[in-house]
């Protein structure tokens, strides 16, 4: 029932006239992104992305189930988006509004339909058992550009996730617990990322990474999903003011550069996370010594 | 029964309509005779991906499209060698005729199928714009249409292929316009036409092996064959018609306004059954009373009770007497009580008699080119 | 077969008397009926005191169970259907003169009788015709078509021309996109692509798509004018 308060006429006029002179309210260049931070949680498959004030959290969970009868050789992969009032007063629990619909559809097409995750690798026993991979996206703070942040979080989480190892001997399947055997990574075929473009003044001004206010004042948007090899996974322009065909093409070129940047960022973050987990290396794992509490903790317990 | 949307007519208009229709002969708003049908536009075989399809537009702008699709399904019931039917909770409909199924019998296909069909093999789905699938109107309409289609027991038997497989018939009915007037006759006529045009692929496989069909669509046969020859094949799908009564008058094909003042409304499903002389005789398959919308319109307030019009305030008992006894004070009162059996009998006769309304409709539809 | 050949595509206006505006469109085997109601008073929505400054466009798509090769019941709350509904609503929000009808709703109802590819494009074209029939003022038609890339199947990838107006089988096999134009040549209103394609192929696909839209616009315009002449003749006679 409550909807985002529309920006006042003053605000929108100011924003639009500033854009006419290629000036954004926070002083960024038209194609500059806000500072992005990507952090992983302690559990495998959790990724936290902050894009300026926008914050999304992606979690991956995995369980064993029966495959769909018409897809015997594939596992199941579902993406679930949760937009709760935590993220914005415009969101309501349980009610599905346009933002949630478009976000979930774009993510579906970008990650699921493009085959980023190889679902055949999730199959355990054809027709009987398979893994059901559930990706959940929580929007914790909405300040514009949910799509880019969400896709980044989801892809990073998928790359980070480790599922349980299995062994199939004829009809018997053993699913090893994480403590018995090292969990293994998912088979990711390619890494697609989304880049959103908002446009103003009949397509003359194209802006990347719009804040919430910029999104509310825009005339339309184009969302391009690509991987770093230049393969476009999806393009979505849902109406809005008509723009030149060439402008749309220039979006795809700009998107490629941005996607390469995203890809680099994810690779670096994954490497850093690996290093952090692997602290001490093999010798630390084999050591029988327990962790000793530090000095400050001892002081507290004496009371 | 499902009442439907209110028709915004004032008590004065309702009274005028009711009076006109109570005359002898009844005067209808559009000047038709009591048994005259409105013209309609119909076409069949309009959809390439269906086994049968039809579209009908009534004169008041309401339009419906019906598509019939058939898919092969594995049967859950099985017939053992001794002819006993092994089923899961299905009434032993086939107990009688199945007993002497002989693999080498070269009997007429029709009689050997008798009694083997199951009612679950037919699925009717109705879609009305603006209504959900579990709203009262679509549910009631589909129940009524399904009942009529299954009533003579013939249709479901035609869906039998062999002991392991059968056809599952899906009838999808789309009402394209808003449901202003009661859509039952429109949907029923469109379904009738669609079923008449439904073709099933010709079976190539023998007996109980996995069904294999002829790819050549020219070799397909009609679900309701209309050959000139044997009388058994003159079966047609049923039609459901709406008939209403006002006092002693019976009126067929009522329009919206006429339904608003009906004393009783009845939906009659009929289908032809042939006599040996190849005459078309209509038998009644189903009969349902429909709650007329006239009951939804409240009675007018008599002037004596209307304090704003200068009526004196009466005690509760006096007001009740005035309302009940009426004495011509109010202009319109919704009909009370049921409908006389004699009237219902006359309604049925109107539809089923030789040269009656039912026959007229069926002959009209038969003339639609497939 | 050229897109505007009369044996391939059929477009009719005013197919339903009961609606404010209606149309019937066939593109190959994809058949769509569209009815438009409005602009009319919005049903009062609880809690929204400030209504929109312009008309609200509501689209509903119902895909019949018999529309595909297999009989399949489509739920109304399917996300894919909802996305299409949103696309159509926002495509027309930029061309219809909604500012003339504040606090009103224009309802577009699409019924898909048979689908064989180019579903979104056919829906947009059918809706345009129905809106014209309903007399809703607009700045231009919204016309759409699909293009697909055969590059991966061609011997010499550079020479493969994109295909125009794909049918169901082609849509399953080839990467394709739906492009909708309005407001002058080469102005893209809607662009939806859900399949993977190399970025280099996009330019050719989009330009062939824009060309196809030009053809379709010509055909729809002809149909509208012919219908208009018939209406005038009926009035005068």
Characterization of this structure:
The complex is a heterotrimer of chains A (303), B (370) and C (237). Chain A has 303 residues and is α+β, with helices and mostly antiparallel strands. Chain A has a single domain (9-301), classed as Ribosomal Protein S5, domain 2, CATH 3.30.230. Chain A is 31% helix and 29% strand. In chain A, strands 1, 2, 3, 4, 5 and 6 form a 6-stranded mixed β-sheet that branches. In chain A, helix 2 packs across helix 3 (146-160). Chain A is globular and about 65 Å long. Chain B is an alpha+beta fold and 370 residues long. Chain B has a single domain (11-78, 112-297, 332-366), classed as Ribosomal Protein S5, domain 2, CATH 3.30.230.70. Chain B has helices spanning 11-22, 95-98, 109-113, 136-150, 154-158, 184-196, 256-260, 316-325, 341-352, 357-366, and strands at 40-44, 52-58, 63-74, 78-79, 85-86, 122-127, 165-175, 199-200, 221-222, 239-246, 249-252, 264-274, 280-290. A 5-stranded mixed β-sheet of chain B has the order 1-2-3-7-6. A 4-stranded antiparallel β-sheet of chain B has the order 11-10-12-13, with helices on both faces. Chain B starts with 10 loop residues before the first helix and ends with a helix. Chain C is α+β, with helices and mostly antiparallel strands and 237 residues long. Chain C has one domain: GHMP Kinase, N-terminal domain (Ribosomal Protein S5, domain 2), CATH 3.30.230.70. Helix content of chain C is 30%, strand content 28%. Chain C has 4 helices and 10 strands, in the order E-E-E-E-H-E-H-E-E-H-E-E-E-H. In chain C, the strands form 2 sheets. Chain C has a 5-stranded mixed β-sheet with strand order 1-2-3-5-4, with helices on one face. Chain C starts with 8 loop residues before the first strand and ends with a helix. The mean pLDDT of chain C is 87. The chains are: A alpha+beta (303), B alpha+beta (370), C alpha+beta (237). Chains in contact: A-C, B-C. Strand 14 of chain A pairs antiparallel with strand 10 of chain C.
